[in-house]
Structures are given as C-alpha cells and as structure tokens.
Amino acid sequence: MIKKVLLTGADGQLGQCIKHIAKQYPELQFTFTNKQQLDITDADAVQLFFKENSFSHVINTAAYTQVDNAEVERDLAFKINEIGAQNIAKACAVHDVELLHLSTDYVFDGKSKIPYTEEMEENPINVYGTSKLAGENAIRATCKKHIIVRTSWLYSSFGHNFYLSMRRAIADKKTLQITTEQRGTPTSALGLAHVLLKIICQEEKEYGVYHYSDVGEATWYDFAMAIERKVCGENKGYIKSTDHFETKAKRPIYSVLDHKKIKNNFAINPSPWQQTLSEV
C-alpha cells in the first residue's frame, strides 16, 4: 500500500536530503513543500492544504534554526517552531495523519555527564531551544499519532551547516578558531533522512519522543580537524583550538544523545560519526 507523505521545509538541509533519497522508497509517494507553497505559520492555509490533499504521514522539517539570531528574533522563532508545529499537529489530528517532527539536543541545558535519554528533564538555555521545546509540547498536547525525533549537530552536502562552512574556509586557506568547549555528536542529515523514511515504512510503532544521532562524542574542534583531514588528506594547520568562543546564544556544554529507545523500538543502529563523515 502506497503511503502519501507530505514534507514541509523541503528546501532546508534535511528536506533536501529526503528529496535526494526519495526514489529509493517506491512505497512512499511524496509531496514536497517549501515556505512559499505551504506557510506552516498560517493556520487557515494549513487546514485548507490538508483538506484539499490526502496524506497518511507528514514529516515536518520546517523550522527556525538560526540559534544566535533567535535571541533577537524571539517572536519569529516561536511563530515557526511553536505555532507552526501546532498548526501542523492540529491538521494531522483532524485528518488522522501520522506526524514525524524534528527537534533538537538544544532542549537540554548541557549539565549532564552522561548521554541524554528521552526521559531526562528538558531545560533549554537559549531562545532556539526554548521555542523547539514549546513546539514539542504543542504537538504532544494536540496530536496523538506523533513521533518527535531529537537530533544533534546536523551536516550534509546541502544547505547551510558547519561541514560546508569548514570546507569553504579550508579551500580558501583561512585560519579558524574552533571551540573545544562544547561536546556533542556530528550527525549526517542524509543518515537521518533514511531513519525517518524507515520509521514511516514500519507498520507497528510506539509514538512519542526519540533520540537519534550518529555514534560517539566530539567537540566542534574535533569535528573541524576531522573535516580538514578528509579535505586535505592531513591537518594543514588551518584549524586552531580555543576553549571559548563568544556567541549571542548560550550553547549546551554537553549534548550527547542516548540511542537505546530508537534502537529497541525501530531496530535502527546509528553509525560512528567518523564513518558517516567519510561517506558524506
């Protein structure tokens, strides 16, 4: 049976990754929308779109993701990440559609010493994380058939991300100061795209919140050094370490995610981040 899947935010990094692999899933029929085609912050437009089209699943990748800018564009961040998510959840509830929604490791404060499980208390320390948590809560209160996937440090060959920024800087032979202060897990957006589509393809599932990232831990400096080695074959000295890098928004010092729940419930086994970097 063909599953009809609506993808919001199709022009973003993850959206482009899903479009890139869509043909590998012939059992899924996709409708790809960007902000111009479907503005998730417009409740009436969302309801009308669902009324005029038939879907079995929605993957909501539309989001405000500019962490520093969110500190000064708070209203816009909440409009997209909370109200937009709520609008999609309401439409899914009315039309009995299963919702997959993307969230972030930034819902945590970074004070843990062990990987974060889905049961651990959220406590975001910046506007972006607070707006994403508000979106999660709106979905939980509105749509029973939801799967919220929190992920971390996404990168790919698409869109705007740390990996592509490093590649450009290294190509231009720029010297970069990269922080060792934060520890998390670089995660291939292409791998996450496969995970989301595999979840949709499974018939029996337990709804709720799940964590997915690649395996292992790194600082941004570790990740930058690994990128330089892949690009140049060795470390050329362009990457310099710094213990602190000043930003508008606070970041969690530690945001490694635990994968046991998604492994047990969906038989999904993430790969080491170094391996997925080689594949990208």
Helicity range? 25-40%
Please state roughly what percent of the residues sit in beta strands, choosing from under 5%, 5-15%, 15-25%, 25-35%, 35-45% or over 45%.
Answer: 15-25%
Instruction: Give me the secondary-structure category.
Output: alpha/beta
Q: What's the CATH H-level superfamily name? A: NAD(P)-binding Rossmann-like Domain
Report the uncertain regions. Answer: none
User: For the residues shown, what is the average pLDDT?
Assistant: 96
Regarding CATH, which class?
Alpha Beta
Q: Which architecture name does CATH use?
A: 3-Layer(aba) Sandwich
Number of helices: 9
Distance between the termini: 32 Å
CATH topology: Rossmann fold
Q: Give the neighbour order of strands across the main sheet.
A: 2-1-3-4-5-10
Number of strands: 12
Molecular shape: globular
Textual characterization of the structure:
It is built from 9 helices and 12 strands. It has a single domain (3-161, 186-215, 255-271), classed as Rossmann fold (3-Layer(aba) Sandwich). Helix 1 crosses helix 6. The chain has a 6-stranded parallel beta sheet, sandwiched between helices. It has a two-stranded parallel sheet with strand order 6-9. Strands 7-12 form a two-stranded parallel sheet. It is an alpha/beta fold and 280 residues long.
